[in-house]
Amino acid sequence: MMKEKKSSYFTATWKMLAAVVIGGIAGGVSVVIYELMKKGIDAGIRTINGTIQQYIFPALIIIAVVTVVVGEYSLYRLKNVYKEMKDADEDRFYELDYEEEKWGAWTSGVNLVSQVACIIILSFGYSLKYIESGKSRYFLFACIIFILCYFYDIYLSVRYVKAIQAAHPEKKGDPTSRKFTEQWVESCDEAEKEIIYKSAYKTYIVLNKVIPLLLLLTLIANMFLNTGILAVLVVAVIYLVTGMTYIRSCMVSKAKKLG
């Protein structure tokens, strides 16, 4: 047991030292490369930024159209799965159960990707400097498309939940309520809850790996590209909230078992 503890401390120590050495070398090399290519990198960033700013409006239109087409198609396929489930035999039912999960994932996925893509594209022009530059004549229309796309995403989410509830009346919860997630999970059976909890824990593990990397990247970007401290603070707050939420949830669950 003592050997295992010593081995763990030793492993943790050499990993940290290795990370420091590798980080120091990588940082030094990055500084040298950046200094040698500074003008080219700055010009490239300005070119990319300017190019995307020119196409904010058409890009948002494309995102909105793709969102509507894929969203409607996936929801249509999901509803057809529910119709077929009513008269399906046992073997076919298991196949349709997978189809339900697949088209539900498509509906949720297009919703999420649409929102993120819209925010990223709009953010290239979402600054007073750009708006006051006189190059933003279509930016107001871009904002309107952005809002319409978000309205559709919300509408699609509500329709998706309603479609599930129509096929599975035992599923409860108002999708417009703040307590929808709690109501929904409460109405799930034990097998469904297990899937939800396992997926949530896997998400937490992935975030615990990804967020520190993003924090490091934002620090590096701030050093070389002057992106500002706000990006670092936002990622740090997300990291803190994620970890503290998990810790608090564990404590509350333990207290409920004891009480």
From TrEMBL:
Keywords: Membrane, Transmembrane, Transmembrane helix. The chain crosses the membrane at residues 12-34, 55-76, 103-126, 138-158, 213-241. Pfam families: DUF3169 (PF11368). This is DUF3169 family protein.
